[in-house]
Amino acid sequence: MVSIDYSVFLQVANFIVLLIILNFFLFKPIIKALNERRQKIDAADQDCRKLETDLAERIAVYESRLNQARIEASNVRHRLVNEAKEAAARVMDEVNRDVLETGSEFERNMRAEVDRCRELLRSQSEWLSVEITETVLGRSIR
Questions:
Q1: Are 124 and 136 in contact (CB under 8 A)?
Q2: CA-CA distance, 112 to 84, in Å (whole number)?
Q3: CA–CA distance from 61 to each of 15, 101, 139 (Å)?
Q4: What pLDDT, in 10s, does the model give residues 52-98?
Q5: 58: number of CA atoms within 13 Å, CB side?
Q6: pTM for the predicted model, two decimal places
Q7: Sign of the dihedral through C-alpha 130, 133, 136, 137
């Protein structure tokens, strides 16, 4: 059987003193350190969330500006293509006019040359026909 004597009370008192000393020197500092660590982790987590939100906003602004720049570049490209087409059409019209003018001038020159040649042949055809006839006949017909 277990007998209860004063040593049991001493052990209980000793245990309570030990709990008070451990609470003061061990449990409270550990709990305090754990709470500070938790606060630092929470603060870092908040900062991280804030940075993620800020990053998302910046990405949205960047993409918006990028899309706007793409649209503007597309508009500029279309404008430049249209201007180039118009310039090419003007050049082609000018070349066509020049070709037509050159063709007309060439045709006029050719007609003038043909007319000159015809006149030359007409003036020489009479003399040539007399010469041929005289050669064939062997006598003078003038």
A1: no
A2: 41
A3: 65, 59, 111
A4: 999 999 999 999 999 999 999 999 999 999 999 999 999 999 999 98
A5: 6
A6: 0.48
A7: negative
